[in-house]
Automatic annotation (TrEMBL):
It is a single-pass type II membrane protein. Residues 52-121 form the POTRA domain. This is Cell division protein FtsQ. Part of a complex composed of FtsB, FtsL and FtsQ. Coiled coil: none annotated. It is found in: Cell inner membrane; Membrane. The keyword Cell cycle applies. Belongs to the FtsQ/DivIB family. FtsQ subfamily. PROSITE patterns: POTRA (PS51779). The keyword Membrane applies. Pfam families: FtsQ_DivIB_C, POTRA_1.
Amino acid sequence: MSQAKRHDRRRDAAPRWHEVLDPRLLGAFAGGLVLVALAATALSWLQDPATLPLEAVELEGRLERVHGDAVRRAVAPHADSGFFAVDVAAVRKAVEALPWVAEARVRRIWPDRLGIEVTEHRPLARWDAGGVVSREGVLLRPAPESLPEGLPTFRGPEALAGDMARRFRELGRTLEGAGLSLQGLAADRRRAWRLELNNGIEVVLGRDAWRDRLQRFLASWPETLQPMADRIKAVDLRYTNGFAVRWEGEPPSLGGHAGRRERA
């Protein structure tokens, strides 16, 4: 067989692309490329801050200590990104860094607003060394002028702020039945507790068995202590079966509350 004929056979056996590729597949592929290009263009257009700029921040929730202007200033560095491109997580983090803000929820409101719902910390007590403890036991240090008046005072190691908030609520419920309330709570590193009542009396509970000691105080309050409350400076309950009273001025004549001292 001649060389020319063998060449023609190989040429005849070679694939013909117009037979291998279906024109419909080629059309679908080309259409897909067009759609991808259009999607990329649309995404770029939507992410352009000039397309849908953010025009306003809408504050939600009841604000007592967080100022709306402070929230808007925190949002401002992120607002230039536009409606679609704004980093909602970054906005939330910036708002939650403000004093008194416990939690922030951020959402887009079509077509040009951000909705921000703020939950504030609720103050429970002043911290003696500066700041305030929230009802959730978080130690905050907002501007002093933002602290409300009339709060009780906590004094102790900062690491105990959460424990003190919980103890304050429990003690308050226990004292309420006797018509008493707390104006101050102190603890040392050994967790020895001291109370300041609303009548100015200091109650020394110590560290151990403080619930039993408080009940001993309350059992003696109505008949023994309350009639002389204006003369009592402090009551020390760190005894086995009784307590000691420190008086304002000269002590009155009492039958005595003896007991072996139990240091806590």
